[in-house]
Amino acid sequence: MIAAGAGMGKSTSLAMSISENRLAPAGIDIWLGCEPADVAPEHLLYGLSAAFGSDVILDVFGVCEAVVARAPQEVSIIFDDVHELGPDSHAVIHGLVDDLPANGHLVLSGRTEVPIPLARLEAQHQVTRLDPQLLLLSPDEVSQMYGAQAAVHGGWPALVSLAARQRSGDDFVWQEVVGKLSTEEASAVHALVAIGPADLGTLEAVGGVMEPTLASLPMVSRSNDVWIAHDLWNQAIDTDTGHDDLRRLAIDYLSSRGNHEAVVDVALRSKSLGALALESLSQIIVDRPPPPSLCHRWLKLAGDLGAEAEFEFLEGLRLRSDRPSSRQCGDAFRRAADRFGERANIEGEAVALGQVVFCAHVRRDVETMTVAFGRINELAVAGSRPATQLAALGGALLAFATNEPSKSLVQLRHGDHKWADPALASLASWIEAGALSQLGRPSLAAARRSQQLRTGLPGTSDVVLWSLIREGRWTEAVAETKNRPSFDGDRDRFLWTCWCAAVHGALGAVDDAAECLAEAESCQVEENWRGQLQLGLVRCMVALAQGEHGHSADLVAELLVPYPLADRAAAMYMVAPRIVFEGVVDGPAQLEPLAVGPLHRRDLRLLTALAEARSLGSNAPIREVTWVDRTGELLTALQVDGAAEFLVRASAAGRPEAVGAISSFFDIAGDAARDHIRAFCTHDEPELAKAAGAIVGTLPIRPSEPRKLGFLGTSTLAIDGRLVETAQWRRERVRSLLGFIVMHRTCTRDQVMAALWPDVDEASARRNLRTTLNLVHKCLEPDRASGDAPYFVRSTGSTLTLVGDGALDVDVWSFVSDLDQAAALEADGLPSTALPLLERAVDTYRGDLLQDVDDALWIDDERHPLRRRYLAACVRLAQLHLALGQADKAETYARRAIANEPWSEPGHCALVAAHLDLNDRAGAIRAAFACRQALAEIGGAAEPATIAMLTDLLAT
Fold first, then answer.
1. Burial level of 152, CB count in 10 A (0-12/13-18/19+)?
2. Does the predicted model carry a pTM greater than 0.85?
3. Looking at the domain 812-954, which fold is it?
4. Are 2-135 and 707-810 equal in CATH topology?
5. 739 with 715: CB under 8 angstroms?
6. Residues 373-391 pLDDT 10s
7. I need a labelling partner for 421 at 20 to 30 A (CA). Which of 27, 436, 651, 944 fits?
8. Which fold has domain 707-810?
């Protein structure tokens, strides 16, 4: 059953389904497009007779007989536009539902369902209804097919098509939709236009609107439990008659359910309902301030209400997302608090003062915070619930603002606070995380608690990222940078991109770090000393990543003038102590008294050990220093270049922890890690050079440039799109060895020697394998430094393994994968979707496997299965294109099949059929003669259908 409005694409979808069935027939489709004359049963049955291609069918029994005659094939009778039928014709449909034989099926499609009883079949799960929303085009489909100019029509196929042809859809909406709405449908549309998006309960309360009515309407969509009328309905139904009465009914229902946001949405649609909007908005502000998206929407609809306390509060929230430290933001909240106070609304006043406190805290304006908390305490005494909660948090927030993290933690833990407001609970956890970080202690648990509440509090989106960095959890930190949140404003985007730049800089990803830094600089919308200092510190880190140590020292010297180390900025410098430790003459001495916590002391311990090792020319300090709990902590303290040096010295010093740490270091930092360690291979200290050489010789790292191997046809190797044509690649045994490893992925050395050198003694075969394998490495990784471990072909004991990740593309693997996917799609009844995969696979097959290699018998065992799959794909493509009426393409693939296998009976038959479809009878006869000759050569019995076709064609 398909019931959907005009222009929804019902007939098009049915035509596509029928076309799909022609490609891979699962039965017979009988299609009948109903018309007004079909209100008469005789006319409907006459149309069915023509559709079946049979004598005149007089009744339902005759239809059933026509279906039985086609057994065992399944027969689907498709009635399109059933809304054109009348009661007498409905009786025909009812009769078919009751009497159709087992191989018969009905598809009923129209603007409304046929009114026939289906309860019995539904109980037996024999009725399927198609959701009309599935017929709408998705935004991507609209954009792809018609461009952005059609996007405003919500995926309604008919209107999208009209828009693409630059024609108005107004006449279509009026003539085909509005003019044909039933009374129930018109009521549903009017209710949605009056009150806006609504759930079913609200619509039932407003006008008894039922779900089946909504589901039948075009351009009415459902998102979760909310029904939404497209804007086109507002244009089509422009009257406002009776809308306020509907809105009041909706507001009464929504208020009874405590849905204040929906009340505001409905009330702001009418100037006469402003008092109701303010009442609900005040409740929202007290319960939980709305997100910026709602603030923007409601502010646009405020009109004469803009000067009220509630809308001043919304204005403050709007400014808070970008500029929480600005005077304008604080002033908006202050005005809101004053106006709530004038109305004796102590709850609203307390919440507004809480926002005043927050804005002052961002500026570290302790005076304003103190005054605001004084009034909040008075409101708490007066019985304000929000004020009581804020007062409990006040001591912690003030201590945090005055750089007293220990006192802040004491205040937070004084008493057992049950935060009723999730925003306050999030803020409390954020303060805890910040205080722990200032004290050099792990803060991730508190950071995660803050983030999990997801209250959208500005300035908190980066809390988990900086906690991960401080604790050395770099794999998680990198993953976090890829999980970019949606920002409510530029302030959060600034903080996030600053920390992302710090992550990339510490890992040596210079380009990514510079890109994030540039974004941070572009969205710093306010002058704030913390933002200025954070940006300056990130610039220092990026300079270090670029190897510009002098420039980093200059930058930090400039920062220390306005933001001295021992002042309120001390905690921020301790996040990246290397900048001061190495960039300031007496940096270590200045940092020492600030290292109050274990993470601070860890960083200074590592920095000091590395500095002493350099100055003494001895690795003894590295040998004696306390090892870190996780490798990432080295990156936190030293960045990638310093961590590389530390690990080389640790390896030279014989630290057993270095082995696992170096592997983890490579996994985290990749190419940058290897490059920095490789630089020590030529170090003046022989001990370091030796240790670095041993490291790069045992741990492989993925090359940045992709490789592409072609073994179907003439062998090719391309690195970053450039063909390799070296003398090593031209050696046949090199291609043969690599081909063997490609086909097996993992194999033993004995298997390789038996396949490539079966006629020589074992010692000679091993020598040949060793020499040839070295040449394979040089072909795949020509830039690999001497002594570096190879990446693609790994050797573990007696086993060779080819690493087939995203850095290596092999045509044989792609060919097999495409064919496997196509087979799965065909098994699912989707041959049209399988077709492009088959075409791609056939295009990939440039010839037999390693056709330019003849010295190995093993190749024949691999060639034949691939050749058979190629032949089958060509034949199947010819058959599919014949079903699609594309005889020219069918001829091409049939000829490719015959060229690959001259005795392919299906290939010859497809070629004959293609010529006949092209009206080339002479070509068909020639193809038939060639088919008969090929079959005679192999002496096998042809299929009966082939014999009949040849006999019929050649007899003429």
1. middle
2. no
3. 1.25.40
4. no
5. yes
6. 999 999 999 999 889 888 8
7. 436
8. Arc Repressor Mutant, subunit A (1.10.10)
